[in-house]
């Protein structure tokens, strides 16, 4: 967002100078795009709530620290996906969100392992992705 690849990750608390992250408001509200399949494995409703309280704080807690994701991280959902636009498009952003339909978080996971540098499926599931789509509407 600042045009500097060496900028450390973390809570954004200064004005953007290069790009505008349209998903920052989602992040501030603990909306996530990764990890729902672990929360909603047996979902029976047509949609799900994309807010996972504490997700942003938990993600920032471990930023830059050695950790074991499986054992240390308590909230595994995060806003992993981002949409960045040039600053001159910022005024045109009308809406942003996460695809919250159950179809995005249901299905059977695949089981994989590596043989050398080859990915081998031991079970091929029908789960679409571990991420749900995020979207933005720009009106010109």
The side-by-side strand order for the widest beta sheet comes to: 1-2
State the total count of DSSP E strands. Answer: 6
User: Average pLDDT value?
Assistant: 87
Give me the Rg, rounded. Answer: 17 Å
The largest sheet is: 2 strands, antiparallel
Terminal-residue CA separation? 22 Å
| Percentage of residues assigned to helices | 10-25%
From the spread of the alpha carbons, the general shape counts as globular
Strand percentage: 15-25%
Helix/strand/pairing category: alpha+beta
- Helical element count? 4
- List low-pLDDT spans: none
SSE order, one letter for each helix or strand? EHHHHEEEEE
Structure notes:
- The protein is of the alpha+beta class.
- It is 15% helix and 20% strand.
- It has helices at residues 24-28, 36-39, 55-62, 69-72; strands at 19-21, 84-86, 93-98, 111-115, 118-123, 134-138.
- The strands form three sheets. The protein has a two-stranded antiparallel sheet with strand order 1-2. A two-stranded antiparallel ribbon has the order 3-6.
- Strand 4 (111-115) and strand 5 (118-123) form a beta hairpin.
- The protein is globular.
- It starts with 18 loop residues before the first strand and ends with a strand.
- The relative contact order is 0.23.
- The mean pLDDT is 87.
Please summarize what this structure is.
With 140 residues, this protein is an alpha+beta fold. Helix content is 15%, strand content 20%. It has a two-stranded antiparallel sheet. The chain has a two-stranded antiparallel sheet with strand order 3-6. The chain has a two-stranded antiparallel sheet with strand order 4-5.
């Amino acid at each position: 967002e600042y045009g500097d690849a060496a900028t450390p990750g973390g809570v954004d608390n200064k004005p953007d100078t290069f790009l505008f992250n349209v998903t920052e408001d989602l992040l501030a509200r603990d909306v996530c795009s990764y990890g729902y399949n672990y929360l909603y494995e047996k979902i029976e409703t047509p949609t799900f709530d994309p807010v996972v309280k504490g997700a942003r704080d938990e993600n920032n807690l471990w930023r830059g620290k050695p950790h074991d994701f499986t054992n240390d991280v308590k909230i595994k959902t995060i806003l992993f996906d981002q949409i960045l636009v040039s600053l001159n498009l910022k005024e045109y952003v009308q809406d942003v969100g996460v695809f919250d339909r159950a179809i995005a978080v249901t299905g059977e996971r695949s089981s994989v392992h590596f043989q050398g540098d080859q990915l081998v499926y031991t079970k091929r599931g029908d789960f679409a992705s571990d991420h749900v789509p995020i979207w933005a509407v720009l009106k010109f």
